Amino acid sequence: MRASRLLSILILLQMRGRVSAEALAAEFEVSVRTIHRDIDQLSAAGVPIYAERGRNGGFQLHEGYRTKLTGFTASEAEALLLSGAGRAASDLGIGPEAAAAQLKLLASLPPDSGASAQRVAQRFHLDPVNWYARAEPPPLLPTLADAVWRAKRIRVRYESWKDVVARELSPLGLVLKGGLWYLVAFAKDAPRTYRVSNILSLDVLDKDFTRPKRFDLSKFWGEWVSEFEARLLRGRAVVKLSPTGLKWLREVSPAAAQAVDAEHTKCKPDGWVRAQIPIENVTYARRQLLNLGGEVEVVSPPELRAELAAEAERIRSYYA
Q: Global pTM?
């Protein structure tokens, strides 16, 4: 544990320059005294670290000192190569750089570790695009990624579900979900989410912004997705499902299938169940449940039941 922390401290100093003992202690959730002992240990091992006192003081590596990329275990190298985001790197405009970085990583590893990591890269491939869909990265994505990297303000024209709007944003990060790219950016002092393909125009401004120190992109995205799904699926419907209907529901609406798994009652001797499921609205629920054909019966709400009956009658009339 301590060896891992020492290496992490060294990498942080190399990446950030001067860092205070208090900041390092907060980063690794240890005491300031422990950080001072760690710095002494690194100095004893020959790492050229010096300290500056004062209000803006801290620990810093001597100029020109760079640690080599060593210390990777086979498992760590495998994880890095497996997480490589081949298509994502290409979408962002850094495909060649990502490939070069992988080669350098392999070259820096011990022979056995490198061979193992290379086997992983050759045997596992991550494809985030859904079936029967084609990956079409938004043309503005590389420019947007550059603004994220350089912390530059941007001005966009964005097509929302209400209207086309103009916004000046501080881009914090990019997220790839289900084959689609999303931008997380500060607007009016609050982080918001924008679908990149809905950005109609983009201007990178010659204005820097300061990233919030405690902003965690992964944490924000997880919380936002949960809130978005809960906000979207506010309606409820009571349905009866056959075993086949429940199987198909898992593909049509995983959230609805999860609700059935959590709580249901048997209503027929041949395996049918009755349960309450979350829905977005009557129109969208009708479209989803029509995929289940005769393997589902809507009990309520009455308007959803009526819309399904009318749609079924319309389909029947085509073949009468």
A: 0.59
